[in-house]
């Protein structure tokens, strides 16, 4: 099959080509650096499948443009599908496949890395030591042992994060619309309401999908419920935080630390080297000024094991569609 790979980076090429070669090279990839949009869709002319990532916007217009020129499969190389208009895809008869799970530990470990770096001020210490400044003022650390960690969403990543934080001797609180008694017993966590989790946790970490219900889940009211000086970690999707409310809470000192791997407007920033250009996003620029904020550019998934798993599952979706017309891990439009 001809496959147009949007938002293609050298590392996508490396892992997808390796997976394709291992399967006997049944597919021919075309590498398109641009994000998918109505105009860039034209670059996929003749490709039966379009392979997309988190910041490709598969809205009705882009999907129609792909469909008009022969695309029949949208193969997401990510788990989340909030960027695909599934209703439009169904109307056009486009199949959608995704990678439901790939090393959830990779994202959970990255969330833990943000906790440790912020808690022990590693991002400040690294720069200081390189400049010959060995003073400790301002580097006073946060002990994890005995702290309460609030986990919002106990799916694959949330559970992996719970296991890690449990290992540090943290008390584990969780909130999920589908609490699971087995998970609670196995991981030693306690399910509580969201307000209770916010009020009791020293560290709050988001591990739920972006849906209408979780959009701006952490707004001014939620932040006000959090303990003064608490830490907030978001490795899920940027839209779950009200960024202006977060900035206000950082300015007042109520929010003690913020660790982000995602940002609501990241499509214009992340995955590109913009170091020689002027940053146009004033909200993001403000976030960067805080000493107690640590931001990474959506790299939670980016480990060798996870990239291999993404490529292999994507190949599985392409193969299943090529032979049976249905991807291995299909995503369907919401009913009703
Ligand atoms: P999952 O589907 O295994 O688990 C999600 C959990 O969230 C489920 O238990 C669900 O019941 C729960 N949930 C749904 N609505 C909720 C709400 N309103 N409040 C609390 N919990 C709620 O998903 P998984 O694999 O654990 O991934 C979680 C999220 O992590 C993804 O949706 C994605 O946005 C993000 N992610 C980030 C990556 C990165 O590189 N930073 C990579 C992969 C995923």
Automatic annotation (TrEMBL):
Residues 113-300 form the D-isomer specific 2-hydroxyacid dehydrogenase NAD-binding domain. CDD domains: LDH_like_2 (cd12183). Residues 3-331 form the D-isomer specific 2-hydroxyacid dehydrogenase catalytic domain. It comes from the Bacteria. Keywords: NAD, Oxidoreductase. Coiled coil: none annotated. Belongs to the D-isomer specific 2-hydroxyacid dehydrogenase family. This is 2-hydroxyacid dehydrogenase. It comes from Teichococcus vastitatis.
